[in-house]
Amino acid sequence: MAARAVGLLASLPLCAQRSQVLRPIHRLLSCPRTVAAEIKREEQSSGSVETGSEGRTPKKTFSEVQKERREQAQRTVLIHCPNKISVKKFLKYLSQHGPINNHFFYESFGLYAVVEFCQKESVTSLQNGTRTPSMGTEAAIPFRSRVFNLKTKNPSNPTSEQSRVQCSIHAPPSSKKLLELLCYAESIDDQLNTLLKELQLTEENTKLRYLTCSLIEDIAAAYFLDCTVRPFGSSVNSFGKLGCDLDMFLDLDEIGKFSANKTSGNFLMEFQVKNVPSERIATQKILSVIGECLDHFGPGCVGVQKILNARCPLVRFSHQASGFQCDLTTNNRIALKSSELLYIYGALDSRVRALVFSIRCWARAHSLTSSIPGSWITNFSLTMMVIFFLQRRSPPILPTLDSLKTLADAEDKCVIEGHNCTFVRDLNKIKPSGNTETLELLLKEFFEYFGNFAFNKNSINIRQGREQNKPESSPLHIQNPFETSLNISKNVSQSQLQKFVDLARESAWILNQEDKDRPSSSRSQPWGLAALLLPSVVNSASLAKRVRKKPASERIKSLLESIKSSGPENATSTNGKRTVSTQA
Ligand code: GTP
Ligand code: MG
């Protein structure tokens, strides 16, 4: 579910674009308390899990991060600006409504500014000072949102202070650029870390995701006062790549909580409500009405599709101003819990995210994953496979879900629809792993492990962290960690699984070869991870037949021979090296 990319300011050199932290120009306009926190946050690596430096400062829980980000988003507005403005005057103009804590610009169908005030009241003040446009022949629906249009009074007479502003980047680098960066890395470990740094969500992109949820919440609140719209999935689980979709959860459970205990004397007051035959029908009705609302009144919400008969009913739409492809669901609390679990795994060891990003990128480069649903493996399943693999190392790099449950206390207890979703939420209570294996070794071993995994009889299970007999005959069985009778990869066909296995074997072979043939003097030749992202040269079907059931050394030997005998027509360059392709 790839999002439409947000515009890229091509004029800046890539390294400068990525490393650049776009600090607000006018700290003076800002509130001092939050500025200090802001600077600290900017100093941390952008997009990384906000957990503090490893092992020393206490790490934030998922709920703490969500709460903080949500509150920040509620004080934030989105403003469509003229292409050239004076940033100084713009901020001065806005600061009449109150001090500004933070701002940044980006491009998506024009120039947008994200402006975070220090106080929520400033947003109301800005709304009160804003007019509804008169539309000439068309009619405007007077919906007062937090998305604004800024007009200049003399557009034909720009002042010298009006200039193009610096924009933050919300799109991943091109595959050509990425491959170049990987070729210039120092080692395979460095390559995996570079890939993570280039593809992970930036601080600004994360802010924009929370803001978009907050804007959708404003619309949903027109019907369901006190509802919450929370991001989940890769936007928050620390495995999100720039350009990934925005999964949102419309949480209506909070509504009841405010009044749940307000009883006095012999009386108990209840709302009169409509009853429907099932929870699923209630979900469909709620999403249907919110879908209509987004379609009719949501500024910039376009292409609204109501997909209500899916296993998990959803409303899909594009949010034009942010550039995100959004999936809105409700009654999907377990997915939120899965996001929290993945966030914990991602934060426990710095190697986890680097490995997951590389495997996801590798799978995408070889069309093992796709943005359209089908019989292919999903990013969610791939992440589970990496977690499982890291649980199987000796000593384990990640704990099993059962051991995280053992560490839980009474406050962590969580049962959703009869499923036990309890695990420890405080990262500081989990002992770090003593395993010191390099990313290079882990990458190679990942491919070896799954290139030889007995998928025909075994299931992958992160709850127990060990292989188990498959309870059903789907080609790939990955147990849903919370709804344990379900298989999250039930959709995967035998041929897609075989393709995965063949490519894993080929990749293990390439990495083993590289041990003997370390980066050539010319860094422009793809090597290590970069070589793995190139189109496969080996005919998968014949390769699979030849390498099956042979010991590793023999497999590698026969693979080598099969590649040699496949002749130069399959390779894209001579001397055994392949050339950089832009189609990763
Ligand atoms: P991207 O490909 O980057 O969007 O990764 P993602 O993790 O966000 O995946 P996706 O958008 O497909 O799904 C969002 C979330 O829904 C996931 O993170 C999971 O929490 C949950 N989810 C997705 N697929 C399944 C599934 O097959 N079973 C279950 N139980 N949950 C799923
Ligand atoms: Mg997603």
Automatic annotation (TrEMBL):
Pfam families: MTPAP-like_central, PAP_assoc, RL. GO terms for molecular function: metal ion binding; poly(A) RNA polymerase activity. The keyword Plastid does not apply. GO terms for biological process: RNA 3'-end processing. GO terms for cellular component: mitochondrion. It comes from Lynx pardinus (Iberian lynx). Residues 442-485 form the PAP-associated domain. Residues 563-584 have a biased composition (Polar residues). This is Poly rna. InterPro entries: MTPAP-like_central, NT_sf, PAP_assoc, RL. Keywords: Magnesium, Metal-binding, Transferase. Residues 61-130 form the RL domain. Residues 40-69, 559-584 are annotated as: Disordered. Residues 188-346 form the Poly(A) RNA polymerase mitochondrial-like central palm domain. Its cofactor is Mg(2+); Mn(2+). Transmembrane segments: none annotated.
